[in-house]
TrEMBL record:
Species this chain originates from: Ligilactobacillus ruminis
Residues covered by the Lactate/malate dehydrogenase N-terminal domain: 3-143
Ranges for domain Lactate/malate dehydrogenase C-terminal: 146-302
Gene3D superfamilies associated with the record: Lactate dehydrogenase/glycoside hydrolase, family 4, C-terminal, NAD(P)-binding Rossmann-like Domain
Binding site for NAD(+): G8, L9, G10, H11, V12, G13, D33, N96, I119, S120, N121
Cross-referenced PANTHER family: L-2-HYDROXYCARBOXYLATE DEHYDROGENASE (NAD(P)(+)), L-LACTATE DEHYDROGENASE
Molecular-function annotations in GO: L-lactate dehydrogenase (NAD+) activity
Keyword set, alphabetical order: NAD, Oxidoreductase
Catalytic residues in the record: H176
UniProt name for this protein: L-lactate dehydrogenase
GO biological process: lactate metabolic process
Keyword presence, Oxidoreductase: yes
Statement: the UniProt record of this protein carries the keyword Cytoplasm: no
C-alpha cells in the first residue's frame, strides 16, 4: 500500500496531489491544508477524476492521525503572496517558520515514521525546522533544495548548446535561493567537462549560472507562481524513497559541518538520505558552499535568539 500525504495545497501542493493521483502513484493520499474549503475542493476535484482513470486512489482529508502509516509526507505549505518580483524565497520566512512550528509537532504526535520531503521555502531552513519539530532522524527529513536549481541549470546549458537537458550532468549547490551556485567543476555535457565545451562554444558560464539562479523568478514574473518543475522534482525524490532507488542527486540534506540543511549531492533511497555524496570541490567553489551554508545556519539561529 503506497500512502502519501501532502500538507499545503497551494499551486505546488495541488500539482503534486494531481500528479500522484492521475499517474496512479498513490494507493492512499491524505490532503491537509489550513483552509478547510480549499482542502475539500481539491479532494472532490480529484475524486471526480477517478471515474476516468485506470487506477484508484483513496483520498482522505484534514486528519493528522492518518499520517501514522503514511510512507511519505510532502510538505508544500506557504503563502506565495509573501513574495515579490525582486525578492527572494526568504519572503516566506516568517509565515513558513510559523507553519513548521505548527505542523511539525502534529506530525510527531501522529506517530509518523516515514520520510518527509520538504518543498516549503526557504527550503533549507524549513527542512531544518521540520526535522527539529518532528524529532525524526535527520536522514528521514530532506528538502527538494537545489534538485530544482540543478534542473534549471541543465535547461539553461541545454538551450545554449541545443542539447537535451538530460545530457547535462552536475550540481547546483548551497541554498535554494540567492546564494546558490553552480559547481561547474562537476558539470559535464554528454560526458565532456563543461570547461572544454564552454571554450569550444564560447559559452558565458557566469551568465548561465545566473540563469539557473533566477530561473524561478522568470516563471514567477509571468504567472505569479511556479508549480510544474518543483512538483516533478518532489515526486521524483518521493519515488526514489518508495522504490529504494538509491538515486544520486542534489537535495537539501543535513551537513554536520554546518549544522543545517543545505543543497548538496546525496543518495536517496528507502531510508530517505541513504548517504551524503561528499564531493571534492576547487577552493573557490568550497568557499561558495561554506558561505551559502553559513547564511542558512545564521537564519536558523535567528529563530533561537
Amino acid at each position: 500500500m503506497r500512502k502519501f500525504a501532502v500538507i499545503g495545497l497551494g499551486h505546488v501542493g495541488a500539482t503534486v496531489a494531481y500528479t500522484l493521483v492521475t499517474k496512479g502513484l498513490a494507493d492512499e493520499l491524505v490532503l491537509i491544508d489550513s483552509n478547510d474549503d480549499k482542502c475539500m475542493a481539491e479532494q472532490y476535484d480529484l475524486l471526480d477524476s477517478l471515474g476516468r482513470l485506470d487506477t484508484h486512489t483513496k483520498i482522505k482529508v484534514q486528519d493528522y492521525s492518518e499520517l501514522k502509516d503514511a510512507d511519505i509526507i510532502i510538505t508544500a505549505f506557504g503563502n506565495i503572496a509573501a513574495l515579490s518580483l525582486d525578492g527572494d524565497r526568504f519572503g516566506e520566512f516568517n509565515v513558513n517558520t510559523a507553519a513548521a512550528a505548527d505542523v511539525g509537532p502534529k506530525i510527531k504526535e501522529s506517530g509518523f515514521n516515514g520520510v518527509i520531503v520538504n518543498i516549503s521555502n526557504p527550503c533549507d531552513v524549513i527542512a531544518t525546522l521540520l526535522q527539529k519539530y518532528t524529532g525524526l532522524p535527520k536522514n528521514q527529513v530532506f528538502g527538494t533544495g537545489t534538485f530544482l536549481d540543478t534542473a534549471r541549470m541543465q535547461r539553461a546549458v541545454g538551450q545554449a548548446l541545443n542539447q537535451d537537458p538530460k545530457n547535462v550532468t552536475g550540481y547546483v549547490m548551497g541554498e535554494h535561493g540567492e546564494s546558490q551556485f553552480t559547481a561547474w567543476s562537476t558539470v559535464r555535457v554528454a560526458g565532456h567537462p563543461i570547461a572544454e565545451v564552454a571554450k569550444e562554444n564560447n559559452l558565458d558560464l557566469e551568465d548561465l549560472d545566473k540563469q539557473a539562479r533566477r530561473g524561478g523568478w522568470l516563471v514567477f514574473s509571468g504567472k505569479r507562481y511556479t508549480c510544474y518543475a518543483i512538483a516533478t522534482c518532489a515526486i521524483k525524490l518521493a519515488l526514489a524513497v518508495l522504490s529504494d532507488a538509491h538515486l544520486a542527486c542534489p537535495a537539501s540534506v543535513y551537513l554536520e559541518k554546518y549544522g543545517c540543511y543545505v543543497g548538496y549531492p546525496a543518495v536517496i533511497g528507502a531510508e530517505g538520505v541513504v548517504s551524503v555524496n561528499y564531493t571534492e570541490l576547487p577552493a573557490e567553489e568550497e568557499e561558495k558552499l561554506q558561505s551559502s551554508a553559513e547564511f542558512i545556519a545564521k537564519k536558523v539561529k535567528s529563530l533561537e535568539d
